[in-house]
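> @MW can you paste both from yesterday?
MW: sure, first one:
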Amino acid sequence: MAAPPSLGCTPPAPGEASGLPDSGYVQEVVDGDTVRLKGGLQVRLVGIQAPKLSLGRSGFVDWPLGEESKRALEALTLHKTVSLFPGETPIDRNQRLLAQVHVVSDKTKENVWVQGEMIGDGLARVYTWKDNRFCAGALYQRERPAREARRGIWALDYYAIRSDDAIAAGDIDTFQLVEGKVRAVAQKNGRVYLNFGADWKTDFTASVSPDDRKLFDAAHFDFAALEGRQVRIRGWLESYNGPMMALTHPEQLEVLRP
């Protein structure tokens, strides 16, 4: 299989190098970030999160633009053979292959990075995990102009970036992007806290556990330097002394300006 052209992100290795499939024929598109190959294997497009569909799950409601995202992925991949580049952790708990996906364009005959296209068209957000964060920088480069142009999901309040002082009760237990100024950086028992408000018991806070600090330390991350800086972080919001977001890897945090 030929290597993909430079797309701002070179996958670590095709599947064949790890005993995993390096290509497959897309028989079905499940939603905007998941496809099913001929033979039944599901592939989750690693590094992105598209609007979700209920898919028959009880109590689950379709997210806005879920169908549009699915149709866009169908246009890119359905009934085509795709190249598969597994992530750092290649199989998830649902036995799906986690991979960067590439396909040859019907029109230009050039290699197309599917994740990059979905992000660039505003039909997905960058969504990384500490054990799957390859290509995050290149995906952020695709996301930024889509967000600024208010393409796709970025035109809707549902996906709007939250301000640190305007997080609603309905945002808890959801994946969000939050922006604000870090007022203070504190450490206790090896855990780092980024406090965005005057009262850490009620205002928005981000935290890094002692175990997760290892990835930040490996990246020579200076938490103290964040004090007074405007940042954007992304992850799942929970409620613990006010809104809280756990940071598990450096790619979740972007420093915006002094």
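MW: second:
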Amino acid sequence: MTEENKSVKNFPNLRFPGFEGEWELKNLGDTFSIFNGYAFSSNASVESGNLWVKIADVGIQEMKRGNISFLPFNFREKYSKFLLEKGDYVVALTRPILNGKLKIAKIDDFFDGSLLNQRVGKIQTSNCNGFIYYTLQRVTIIKEIENNIAGSDPPNLSPNEINSISIKLPLISEQQKIADFLSLTDSRIQTQKKIISQLKSQMSNLKDLIFEQQLKFKDNNDNEFPDWRDFKLSDLGNTFNGLSGKTKEHFGVGQKYIQYKQVFDSAKINIANCAFVDVEENENQNIVEYGDVLFTISSETPEEIGMSSVLLENVDNVYLNSFCFGFRTNSFDELIPEFSQFLFRSNKLRNEIIKLAQGSTRYNMSKTEFLKLKVKLPCKDEQIKIAQLLSSISEKIIIESELLTQYENQKKYLLQNLLV
């Protein structure tokens, strides 16, 4: 692969050996046939018939059979225009951009013959090398689409607007080379996602087995550990509040504080992601300590209430946001921090915490009721063994997730430099 003169705009920065010359500027509609689907009745969906691809089925991931609805009749002759063929692409016409990416999917063998709903656009190509699929993922194309749909509510993209998108095309042989290479990159990304999914599934299954006490551990002498003991959380420690009395003027400078999203997103606090808040020396504010378990006290849904994260670092003068509270144990001999990060995110205990959610449009949790919850705990030595096992898988997930990010960044680079 060679690097071309970047001042020339009609061919990419990077090219495979053997290709030269400028790419041809065209509108998307000059090369590809683009139209939207048919307005099927909303009550036409039944459990048999042709596959029906709806807007909810089109995302930035692969479409799955389980998400597809069915139509009761054979529309193959009357509605042949709306049938999908291998090599087609489908694009969401309503809210087409998700997290900065175009909601587009390739049609494979399985979806060949599927029907298309009216809010989904079909791009029919003369070849199925995948080149246009990657062209439509470029940042410049995404921005052009965002400009076209700006101001509409909900944001809607018409086939005519897709037709007018400007693209630059090389010869078919170069299109094929580029598409094949990017397809390999996509395959590696999908493989990486499967690795992470399998690890998360393994973690979830192990946690269920452990906290339902279906998986037994033994000490170094091959003896079983003692039975788990019952505790109320109030027996193990006490709660404390996050920041109080702060306005937006206090944030952005000063001491570190742990944000809501840090608690919600991960079972372990990453201090590097803290924000800053101005706290005077004489203020009566609680600071966090090693081993504190932090909980979200407010959420938009009951299922998100009481998400926990444990501080496993020694820190000085670090505070907690006002939409969370902390739980500080009396003794690490009864509950060690490394075990806490898995205990409070176990399905068994999460189900009990969710029951504490109170509200209608926004949900809150009572700290008093929280302390009444009962937990079963193994002895300290078994907690250590359990934490070591689950931590090893957790660290593996982090490493594989970082690798996935590298692959995705590599793809972004290639999209910007292999295409124009």
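> thanks! DSSP finds eleven helices and 25 strands in the chain.
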